[in-house]
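Structural prep section.
Before we set up the soaks we want a predicted structure of the protein with zinc ion in place, mainly to decide which crystallisation condition to try first. Input record follows.
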Amino acid sequence: MKNLVIVESPTKARTLGQFLGKDYQITASMGHVRDLPRGEFGVDVEHDFKPQYVIPKEKIKAVNNLVKVAAQAEQLWLATDLDREGEAIAWNLLRVIAEKGKVKNPQYQRVVFHEITKEAINEAFEHPRKIDDDLVEAQQARRVLDRLVGYKLSPLLWKKVKSRLSAGRVQSAALRLVVDREREILAFKPEEFWVIEAMLVGQRMESRGQEFSATLIKIEGNKAEVKNKTEADQIVSDLNKAIYKVGEIKSKDIVKNPSPPFTTSTLQQAASTKFGFAPKRTMRIAQDLYENGLITYMRTDSVNLSVNFVTSARKLIEEKFGGKYLPKQARAYKVKSRLAQEAHEAIRPTNVQVTSDKLQVASPAHQKLYDLIWKRTVATQMETAVVTENTVMVNALGNKKYILSAAGQKVKFDGFYKVYGKIPIKEQVLPQLSTGEELKLNKLNSEQKFTQSPARFTEATLIKELEKNEIGRPSTYAPTISTLYERNYIEKLEDKKIGPTPIGKTTVDFLVKHFPKIVDLSFTAEMENDLDLIAQGREQMAPVISKFWEEFEPQVAKVTEEAEKMKVEAEETGEECEKCGKPMVIRYGRFGKFMACSGFPECKNTKTLAAPTGLTCQLCGGSIVMKRTRHGRMFWGCSNYPKCKFASWKKPDVESKKKESTSE
Ligand SMILES: [Zn+2]
Ligand SMILES: [Zn+2]
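Run finished without errors. Recording the tokens verbatim:
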């Protein structure tokens, strides 16, 4: 065999195979070939924190095969992904081939590309390089740091908070954001205020008959602050007798710019908001699209677009939408990122001619995500939209002088919105008014409102916050959030919102008290920045980790010795245990929430927690709820259990039942 190419996955191997000739054999490593050992510390803190990698048991056979095939190749090409993770896989592959194959310095070439297309592959294989040790070191440093924190903190949490907990470095800082927000919401005191609105109509030919609404903004020249019903009623009664005249009229054109091309973080946010995709799911689908050669590499924080792509996008825009949708000059986006050298481009389609309906991939989810990426990218190269905003001031003279304001907006040119097929702007047209014109009052409305507490995070807004605080990287957003769910630190509430569980709150309290740095946002950001500097060769792994460890290790010892156990507050359910009469409380297990007797360990009574479904039981007319078996499998059951025994693995087919009964 002449050439052996190693990549991470079979899909990537297949796509690559279409572009490399018969002289190349392509094989997949199936991800990392070595990692830190499970159930063992695996870091030599005495010797520069050297990681002690092992080949996981289930991979030994595949790795041995890989080594054997590699020995037969005349030329070895390492074509794993282009970021730190991919670089580390390539480096570990090479080490394994060297050690197992007993070759001191195996000959190899490292090739990187950020899209799997003919041009990119040719280019990469014409310009191979060697493994970038700085990138490898940055990946190792992250792995080792996370291991130090996880391995030392977790047992401490078991002892001082609750058994089987675990702590992670970035996760803990993210969890703190969620807990802090929840407490802000709890502490928030809503303030009452009133909004007063007049329904007015013009008197001239041009404006007659067209009612519009204007909101009170000023009283005697000061900002209108209406605090309670008494005040509101007084103003309404004065405004009822007032004389209304049109004051200043203003009109201006607002230019709307398209959003920049997708990065990992903005793609995850958009897919979560639009489709409700969890970040982990978005990444899995994006990886599929990348490995099938359809989009560029999905882990990036660059907003750059290649010149070739922009040229072909502009051609498409002119053909498909017409010249007026094409800006005179191509739009470029500035890369503010530290990582610009690692990931070259934003997430974009590899071929702009391929629209989602021509897509050769499987699922509707793939199609949706591709469509989202395609439209966002094409929009970046389209003309800006123009919206005309009109504001009309209305002077009302009663016992006092009032100013009301009416606003209208109209789309003048749809620009890049064209690609989305709809414009996210609510048009509101004001009648043709002229200054000094007298207005007739049709009606006054006053409405009680309250100031709003800050909103709970959604997955999308949490990712945004992580990025804003610089504690996330393209490779970490999705795993950070899914880990918080898996460990029952956060839970999903209604409307895609996220809230902390009692365990989450107590864990954060414990860490804030004893390891303030671990949950300090700027410290975590600094740490991430150090990792970036290592990747650029401007810092070294050992001193960075050592600085952290020298403070962290004695603190672990001190807290183990001195800290008192913290109690996780129990969530009441309002139900009593039918076995012993003590209150039932919510507990968290491997499969999420369940009800347990607060008399534990004396009383071991537990019950599954039911989630309402809105469906009706066909046997007894009770309501159908979703429950889990003790083994975690979801099923549909009747809320009247044990009186009614209805249970089903599949969703009860209530709709078709209804149809049957009406046709009878
Ligand atoms: Zn009990
Ligand atoms: Zn029933």
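Observations: The two ends are 72 Å apart (CA to CA).
Flagged for discussion at group meeting.
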